[in-house]
Amino acid sequence: MNTSTSWYKDMPEGMELDDQVIERVLQSTGAVMEVWVVKNKRQYEAALFFDRRYRPGPPVPRPLEEPSGDSTHWMGARPKVGLTAEEAEKILHEVTCANALHKIQMKDTWGVAS
Q1: E strands, 1-114, where?
Q2: Among candidate residues 97, 101, 95, 113, the one with its CA nearest the CA of residue 44
Q3: 4-12 contact pairs (CB < 8 A, 24+)
């Protein structure tokens, strides 16, 4: 996709936008939430943006310990955003396919102490 990364703020150095997976307006704040497949270092992963500002968090959705309403998964660290099972599945599928296409073995080390 030819979206200019200059439209997006606070992305880690070297991160490249690949394909937008989800876009929706959050009812609680009115912010536009986007999830993109990005190339980050040597792998493809999901990245969360609020109003085109990158929010750090896990590279793929995480299951909620206590699902609430339609939300079964989450992304982002602060703030977290809830995702439906369908959204989480779509994100995981897109990330898995991008890595498989490029013969990349994804490593998820988010939250693991070094």
Answers
A1: 16-25, 32-40, 43-50, 53-55, 62-68, 71-75, 81-84
A2: 95
A3: 7/52, 8/49, 8/52, 8/53, 8/54, 9/52, 9/53, 9/54, 10/53, 10/54, 11/38, 11/47, 11/54, 12/40, 12/54
Q: Is the peptide bond before 79 cis (omega within 30 degrees of 0)?
A: yes
**How do residues 6-59 score in pLDDT, each as one tens digit?**
789 999 999 999 999 999 999 888 999 999 999 999 999 999 999 999 999 999
Residues 54-112: pLDDT tens digits?
999 999 999 999 998 999 999 998 778 999 999 999 999 999 999 999 999 999 988 77
The pTM of the full predicted model, rounded to 2 decimals, is 0.89
* SS3 state at 30: coil
**Dist CA 97 CA 12 (whole Å):** 23
Q: What's at 31, amino acid-wise?
A: A
Measured distance CA(26)–CA(76) in Å, rounded: 14
